Amino acid sequence: MAARRCLGLWFFLITLCVVSTGADVLHTTPVTGTESSAAGTETVVARELPEAPSDPGEHTAAEPTREGEQNDRTRGGEQTLGQPTREEEQEQEKTREGEQTPAQPTREEEEEEEEQEQTRGEEEFTREEEEEELTREEEELTTEEEELTREEEEQTREEEELTTEEEELTTEEEELTREEEEQTREEEEEQQTTAQQEEQTKRWEATELEEEHVHDAAVPPLAGDPPAADPPSPPPSKDDFQEELVIRPLHSGDIYASFQFRTVWDADFMGDQKVSHYRLFPKSLGQVITKFSVRELHISFTQGYWRTMQWGQPYLPSPPGAELWVWFQDTVTDVDGTWKELTNVLSGIFCASLNFIDSTNTVQPSASFKPLGIGNVTDHSFLRYATLPREIVCTENLTPWKKLLPCGSKAGLSVLLKSEKLFHSTFHSQAVHVRPVCQDPQCRTTSMELRQTLNVVFDLHTSGQGKREWSLFKMFSRTLTEACPLASSSKVYVDVTDNPQGEQFELSPATPLLTQAVVLGDRRTYSVYDLTQQASFGSSRSLNMLLRWKNSHNNVVPPVMLRPLLHSERYVAGYGLQAGEIHTLIYNHHPYRAFPVLLLSAVPWYLRLYIHTLTVSSKGKDNRPSYIHYQPSKDRERPHLLEMLLQLPPNSVTEVTVEFERALLKWTEYTPDPNHGFYVGSSVISALVPSVVAMDTNSTLDRPLFSSFFPCKEEASYFMRVYTEPLLVNLPTPDFSMPYNVICLTCTVVAVGYGSLYNLLTRTFQVDEPSPGLAKRIANVIRRFRGVPLL
């Protein structure tokens, strides 16, 4: 290929040299005649056209024409001037050749092109090599990163194994410490039991010696008294039962009696370990708590309304009717389904109508009901609250409640729970509270506490002789003869705060034991009767406390009762059966302290609230709530839920008003007595009320039960819960006598019409012919003999 290109270049250069020499000859040689000119043209043509065809015919034919033309040009000067000369033609041919020659590439250009191609190929090759090297480096980096990640994973695995080993070691250490603590606790308990047995034997020996020296030795011993040689065995360490009764004379002349029964069991219901052995703790409640994973259970049954302005604050408040609120454990997945099953089970245990609790009267508060036991639970999705304001409390609710007590109603303070006396009272409330509590002050271990409370208010003016004197027998028709043998503490407290020197009334039998306790922000003084001491019963072996007023006319003016710092009222306003308003009044009687309260209102779905009409005012000014949680209702699915955090100014009345519209129910949704009205549950007000005296924040075992239910975390305030009155609202009610009349009329018409038609269709009719006369019968006889047809 290269040789061919070289030969071509050489041939092209030779032709250029020949052409250039021919042109020089033409310029130097003058034209003298026709021959010279013809010869010159022939040479030029031969040089210019070296590759012309060698056909002789063509060449011979062209020559005469050229000679003829030259002869013509030499002959006449006029003819040669009009045509181009031969020199001009040669110049034109040279210019044509010059135009054609640059189009052909030279060798240098071809070499340059080859070099460029080579450089391009080399560049592409180098580029490919660089790309390959980059890919190799990237692959190496990725492999190195993978190795690093593998090493890190191995390190993390080793660290996890180390952590697991450390956890196992810590668990083993904890188990060892627990075992040591249990051993020490058992040793302490054994020491305590031995000390208690020695004290019991000493006490029984002392009582025997005293009885021998008594003059009235003819009194026979009671059947329930234990023998002197056999002291009662103390309760085991796993269970503990306490009972107490608080009696407080009210300023209105009524008597307030509060029973407290507390059972503590060192069992972990919230763990995975199943509890199967029961002694003092009731098995029915223990199985319910374990099966439904209940953290806290609070249930109350109340008949009547607590009059705060006349009686003061109760130890444990409760709304009229039935109230139930439960905290479930975080292991429960279907809270609503578990709540429904739990209400049905509790309905059977307490013989109540708790099975009527469903989604239409159940709410999920967001801030009102905090856990009363240990543990800071913040997820309110495990909380459910419901009320039945129309629930009636009677003996069938009291009987299963008493069966939960270790001694039942056979011994101890429970012998005073006589149903015909308890329900013949102004106010009656019984409750059950189950919660986890700390077992020791350091709260290293937890226990499950069951607290049963019963509060009753007796109106002695209506039940007796119009006197303010009272006694245990007058209130309960029974007296106390012994403490519950299973109780570690059994005491009776009588409030004597208003009678410090015994000037107004006299309490008998007198007791030298006095104690003080801070209850509801006030320091109170109580006379204490310890039923575990035989000296409390005296020689008659029966305790019947009696209060006598020293004024013979019984018209002693009692001291002025301090107004409660917080109480509330609620009522329905409006006219007609279409619209109305709910007014809630909250009173703060503190002269100079303002404090916040949390208001919860659950309104049924058939009262459709207009939340845009909600107004809150204090002292004639708007009181803007700092927190509002509102959940609208759904017809026949869920009620309204309204929670507000309000700031109560000192010595003020805060009014909360909201408008509503009554809905028209289906005729199957009305109660059997629709004209009586529909009940709306009480509103709940929770607050930290300023205390008059410093509260005791240490939860010690020496405190009375009635003063240690709500946890106290501040010395300057105490927790209080207040319930308003339930509402009775009339709804648009159809005339249910009209359907009765229509049913009676329709049944009458159907009976008459259908009966007549049925008789006509099913009865057979027969025509009775009258009997023939005597002449006709004789004639027929004659015709029969003659063979003639009868008449």
UniProtKB/TrEMBL annotation:
Amino acid composition bias (Acidic residues), ranges on this chain: 125-191
InterPro entries attached to this UniProt entry: PIG-T
Biased composition (Low complexity): 218-227
Pfam short name (any one): Gpi16
Region of interest called Disordered, as start-end residue ranges on this chain: 48-204, 218-240
This protein's UniProt keywords: Signal
Top-level taxon: Eukaryota
Signal found in the keyword field: yes
GO cellular component: a single term: GPI-anchor transamidase complex
Signal peptide coordinates: 1-22
Iron listed as a keyword: no
GO terms classed as biological process: attachment of GPI anchor to protein
Compositional bias annotation for Basic and acidic residues: 56-76
Protein name, UniProt field: Phosphatidylinositol glycan anchor biosynthesis, class T
Taxonomic lineage: Eukaryota, Metazoa, Chordata, Craniata, Vertebrata
